[in-house]
Design goal:
The chain has 158 residues and is an alpha+beta fold. Strand 3 and strand 4 form a beta hairpin. Helix 1 (35-51) crosses helix 4 (112-120). It has helices at residues 35-51, 63-78, 86-95, 112-120, 123-129; strands at 58-60, 100-107, 135-142, 149-157. The protein has a four-stranded mixed β-sheet, sandwiched between helices.
Length: 158
């Protein structure tokens, strides 16, 4: 029986190479979101922001929404809401010029009013809605299995 061992060392003189992973995405995914519902959510979010003396958010129908749709599809596939791989989405948006990135997720709400009310009643989600952001991307999709809506909001500041 032969065992092979590889020994690696690192000294101060050796450069540390960091691998950069870029999250590529088809921007056309953004068009898969339910834009009727997403626009209603945006209107409610902006009405709330205005009532708090904050600037309104611009709708992103490109990369932020493509990343949000991709994440929403993932949540539907595992039938659970989460922020899995958020760091990857965040870095991808930063690669595209974002200064700050955050997200809200939800599922099971059937109207824009219901999901926005739930987010506003949650301190962490409300913090994102009222945060120092300029744009908002959307992944709003219905599960084919049970017709429940799943939501991803991707906030960013340019």
């Amino acid at each position: 029986m032969v065992l092979l061992f590889t020994v690696a060392s690192c000294s101060k003189d050796e450069a540390v190479v960091e691998e950069t992973v870029h999250y590529t995405i088809d921007v056309n995914l953004a068009q898969e979101t339910d834009w009727t519902m997403a626009n209603e959510i945006l209107d409610l979010v902006n009405a709330h922001r205005t009532s708090q003396g904050l600037s309104t958010l611009k709708r992103d129908q490109q990369y932020a929404s493509a990343y949000a749709v991709d994440h929403t599809k993932y949540m539907i596939s595992i039938e659970d809401i989460n922020h899995d791989n958020f760091q990857t989405r965040k870095e991808a948006m930063k690669d595209r010029g974002a200064i700050r990135v955050s997200e809200n997720v939800a599922y099971g709400y059937q109207t824009a009013e219901a999901v926005v009310t739930a987010w506003l009643n949650s301190p962490d989600h409300r913090k994102n809605i009222e945060g120092d952001f300029t744009h908002l991307g959307f992944g709003v999709l219905q599960s084919e299995d049970d017709s429940r809506y799943y939501f991803t909001q991707l906030f960013y500041k340019k």
